[in-house]
Design goal:
This protein is an alpha+beta fold. It has a single domain, classed as Sandwich (Immunoglobulin-like). 18% of the residues lie in helices and 53% in strands. Strands 3-2-5-6 form a four-stranded antiparallel β-sheet, with no helix packed on it. Strands 4-1-7 form a three-stranded mixed β-sheet, with no helix packed on it. A hairpin with a 6-residue loop joins strand 5 and strand 6. The relative contact order is 0.24. InterPro entries: Carb-bd-like_fold. This is Carboxypeptidase regulatory-like domain-containing protein. It comes from Chitinophaga terrae (ex Kim and Jung 2007). GO terms for molecular function: carbohydrate binding. Keywords: Signal.
Amino acid sequence: MNNIKAGLLALTTIAFGTFAFRTFEDTGNITGKVTPASAGTEVWAIQGTDTLKQPISQGAFQFENVKTGAYTVIIGAKSPYKPATVTDVRVDKNQITDLGEIKLEH
């Protein structure tokens, strides 16, 4: 019985030590502004089968803690404006990817 307890304690200690210093995700942020500010509705960041969605507030949006990699960003628009798409948006570890000003067209 003592051997089982000692074995479980050793296994728990090893598991804790392995995960205690591990970074689970490499993440960054995506930000941008939409003009006209009142024309944008919401924004999506898509990578493979992962889709993130955020509202646009006062013409601005931000995605936080986004996995690193390349994304397609789609900005939804109110009529008479058309949605906009930005491709190959790179997110790097601990970096902010600023898309700048995205102008929605009629």
